[in-house]
Structure formats: structure tokens, C-alpha cells
Write a structure and sequence with these properties.
InterPro entries: Amidohydro_3, Metal-dep_hydrolase_composite, Metal_Hydrolase, Metallo-hydrolase_Enzymes
Protein name: Cytosine deaminase
GO molecular function: cytosine deaminase activity; metal ion binding
Structural class: alpha/beta
Number of domains: 2
CATH superfamily of the largest domain: Metal-dependent hydrolases
CATH topology of the largest domain: TIM Barrel
Number of strands: 18
CATH class of the largest domain: Alpha Beta
Strand order of the largest sheet: 6-7-8-9-10-11-12-13
EC number: 3.5.4.1
Strand content: 15-25%
Helix content: 25-40%
Radius of gyration: 23 Å
Shape: globular
Largest sheet: 8 strands, parallel
Organism: Brevibacterium yomogidense
Length: about 450
């Protein structure tokens, strides 16, 4: 059966029931009832699937038989640049593969007048659709506001309203070229926040000097207080152990009481910190209750260039952050842009890479792997009523798997996606017929999903 992937194709959420669902951390199967966009009840399954989890899932009406498969909250994309999507190679390729050449290419793209409202919105919509097809229901997109016309911001602000039925968008006012390195950058961030941006962004390591970077962080926190906004700063995305703006962010968050409202994106330089400094830093990050957004695939691609062997990985020390109880989200960051020519918006790909590069393929981390693309980014985005419990928003996925470990290993299809109770899409599980041939005789045949 062909998947119906037109967002919200089945209309606004009428009552629906997901039967025979398997939940993380809970024994036995359950039936999940949904009404008015929320989970109305979670009860032990009335009738278990006869085949132990391999039966067809579709039933009458809008109900769905999960047949013992895993039901998860919708995935949350903590860090992406939708306004950059599908721009790779224009005006030129990133020949060095470095972050700073990508920034130069982007500056040239804007200077050449290649950023157009409709093109930005169309590309961003295509990227959001791709992410939604992989189970994403919430997206925090950084949007470049170092443009006096705020072209990308206005395009994404429109898109936010247009796709709200199937994807909830948060917009970060992100000064790609700096707030002091770019003339008037500080005022542009303020203006974007006044006109509807949700989150304060920044890039202190790109400012003209260390003192300018420090000053930029303080200014961005001033804006967060002024606009009552969350904070998400590109911080220390550079192969330099002396780049320590994460320490400055922690100090500002503690001093202003913004605990739990601040996300550190990338934090690449932490991979290069001396053990003594890192040991002193980690308790400060916990005290400030910072969240982290890590892009393992992208920073593996961008960082470590120009080093002789052994080549550093250039990915923040996720294992240390997790062991200290800090929320870490694995993120996409880019989809076909000057920074990263790949990317499909699939959180499981980024989860897989992150677990590998962070040495987290241990039983305890694999058993809770989906936290990196659900619970932790939801916390960073400040989402309320997220998760699988009665009264929460019905943002649900049925995955063609039974455990977190299986999701990481198999990269299963999403069979059903609900956003606020509205069906985004559903599809049948894939089937394969395996045959062993001897001459023209089939000696073995079986079908698996």
C-alpha cells in the first residue's frame, strides 16, 4: 500500500486509537486514545496481536493497530538552518570543506543577491517535509538575520504559519556574520525578536575579538530578558582550545537566573579542552542547567581539517555531558548547503552517528537512545505537554521496531505520524520475499517485514 504522506491529509484530528502499542520503559502493550489533539487515555491493550507483533496495522476508521510496535513521541529537531537548505554549490562549492569557507560562500551568496523570499520558503518547506517524513514534528530553525531586509526571516515566519498543522517551528534570530563583526547586527537581532522570532541566537567566536565575543554574549542575554525569549547560541564551533565562550554563557545564565532556558549549540572546542579545565567547567554547566545541541555528522565533516594524524574528531565530549546529567540533543544542522552537502532531516541517522562518535554504544545508553532526539531536545525547546502520558499533546509516532536499540540498528520506517492529534501520514510496513534458487526450483521462501 502506498504511503499517504500529504501532511494532515486525513484532516483535523478526530478521535483515534492506537491499539497494541509498545511504550518505552513499560511492560505489556497498551491502547492509546486520542481526542481533541491530546492523549485522553493509556490503558492495557484489550486484545493482544495474535502473531506477537507482525500483523497488519490498518483497521476500520482512523484507528491504527501498532501490533506490538514501538510508539514514541514525535522526533524533535533541535538545530537546523532551513533558510540554507538546498543551496549547496551556489554560488560555488566549498572546496576546502571548512566551516569558514562555508561562511564566506554564504556572505558572497547574499552579496550577489541570490537570496529570494519565495526560493527560500520553497526550499525550507521541502526540507521540513523531508524531516516530517522521518517523524519530526518540532523544529528549531536558526535563520540568518544579518541582512538589512531580513529576507530569510520573513520567509520563515510565513512558513511557520503555513505548516503549523503538521510541524511546529521555532525561529532563532541568528546573526550568521556576527553582531559586531557585521555592521548593525545587534539591531537586526533585536528587530527580528520584536517581529516574532522565538529564540535569541549568536556566534561569539566569529566576533572580531575575545572581548567582542564576551560582550556579544552579554548583549544576547540582555535581549533574552527584554523579549522573554529562550537562548540558543552557536558557541565555540572552532578547533581552538582557547575558545571558551561556553564558560561565559554558563556565567550569564547563572547570574540572570535563566536556568533551563539556554542551549549551547556545537561546543566543538570542548573536544580540545585540557582535562583539568573540563573538570572545572562541567559543574558550572550543571549549575547553569544548560542544554546542548550537537551535530555529529556535520562537525565530523567540518572540523579537524588542517591537522596531521591523528586527526581530531571535533565533536563535543557528549559522554561527559551525559554523565553529568546535562540534556544533549543530536541534530541535523544542514541539508544540502555550503556547510554540509548531505542531510535528509532524518534524526535517526544523526542519533546513530552521535552514539558512535561519543562512544555511547553501551546497554544503558542504547536502551534510552531515543532520548537524544525526543526528551532532551524537547526540554531544550521548552516544549510543554510533550511525551506519552494522559493529557499530553498527541504528537505520536508508530515505528517499525520494538526497542530503542532496534531503532538505532535498523533505521525503521515511521508507519504513523500524528501532530497534535492530526494525522500527518501513515504507511504500510515494507515486506521482502527472500528466495533461495537451485536451478529453477525454489527451495526456501519466507516473507519478513
Amino acid at each position: 500500500m502506498q504511503a499517504d504522506r500529504s501532511p494532515g491529509a486525513r484532516g483535523k484530528g478526530t478521535a483515534v486509537q492506537i491499539r497494541n502499542a509498545r511504550l518505552r520503559g513499560r511492560e505489556g502493550l497498551v491502547d492509546i486514545a486520542v481526542g481533541d489533539g491530546r492523549i485522553t487515555s493509556i490503558r492495557p491493550a484489550a486484545v493482544a496481536p495474535a502473531d506477537g507483533g507482525q500483523s497488519d496495522r490498518t483497521t476500520a476508521s482512523a484507528d491504527f493497530d501498532a501490533a506490538g510496535r514501538l510508539v514514541s513521541p514525535q522526533f524533535v529537531e533541535n538545530h537546523i538552518h532551513l533558510d540554507y537548505a538546498k543551496t549547496a554549490g551556489v554560488p560555488r562549492d566549498n572546496a576546502s570543506g571548512t566551516l569558514f569557507e562555508a561562511i564566506d560562500i554564504w556572505r558572497d551568496r547574499k552579496a550577489q543577491g541570490l537570496q529570494h523570499h519565495d526560493r527560500i520558503k520553497d526550499n525550507a518547506r521541502a526540507a521540513a517535509l523531508s524531516a516530517a517524513s522521518h517523524g519530526v514534528g518540532y523544529v528549531r530553525t536558526h535563520v540568518d538575520v544579518t541582512d538589512p531586509d531580513l529576507t530569510a526571516f520573513y520567509a520563515l515566519r510565513e512558513l511557520k504559519e503555513e505548516i503549523a498543522a503538521w510541524c511546529s517551528l521555532q525561529i532563532v534570530a541568528f546573526p550568521q556574520n556576527g553582531i559586531y563583526a557585521f555592521d548593525g547586527g545587534d539591531a537586526l537581532v533585536d528587530r527580528a525578536l520584536s517581529e516574532g522570532a522565538d529564540v535569541v541566537g549568536g556566534i561569539p567566536h566569529l566576533e572580531p575579538s575575545w572581548s567582542d565575543g564576551e560582550r556579544s554574549v552579554a548583549f544576547l542575554f540582555d535581549l533574552a530578558e527584554k523579549h522573554e525569549a529562550l537562548v540558543d547560541i552557536h558557541c565555540d564551533e572552532i578547533d581552538d582550545p582557547q575558545s571558551r565562550f561556553v564558560d561565559v554563557m554558563a556565567a550569564e545564565a547563572r547570574a540572570r537566573g535563566l536556568h533551563g532556558r539556554v542551549t549551547v549549540s556545537h561546543a566543538v572546542a570542548m573536544a580540545y579542552y585540557a582535562p583539568g579545565y573540563l573538570a572545572r567547567l562541567l559543574p558550572k554547566l550543571v549549575e547553569a542547567d544548560l542544554g546542548f545541541a550537537i551535530a555529529p555528522n556535520e562537525n565530523l565533516q567540518l572540523q579537524g581539517r588542517g591537522f596531521g594524524p591523528p586527526t581530531p574528531r571535533g565533536v563535543a565530549p557528549v559522554r561527559d555531558l551525559v554523565e553529568w546529567g546535562l540534556p544533549v540533543a543530536f541534530c541535523q544542522d544542514s541539508m544540502e548547503d555550503p556547510w554540509y552537502p548531505m542531510g535528509a532531516g532524518d534524526p535517526v541517522r544523526n542519533l546513530d552517528a552521535g552514539l558512535h562518535v561519543a562512544h555511547l554504544l553501551t546497554t544503558d545508553h542504547l536502551d534510552a537512545a531515543l532520548d537524544f532526539i525526543t526528551v532532551s531536545p524537547a526540554r531544550n525547546l521548552g516544549l510543554e505537554d510533550y511525551g506519552i502520558r494522559e493529557g499530553a499533546h498527541a504528537d505520536l509516532l508508530v515505528l517499525d521496531a520494538q526497542t530503542d536499540r532496534e531503532v538505532v540498528r535498523e533505521h525503521p520506517d515511521v508507519l504513523l505520524s500524528l501532530h497534535r492529534g492530526v494525522e500527518v501520514f501513515r504507511q504500510e510496513p515494507r515486506t521482502r520475499t527472500w528466495s533461495t534458487q537451485v536451478g529453477n526450483t525454489t527451495v526456501e521462501e519466507r516473507t519478513e517485514s
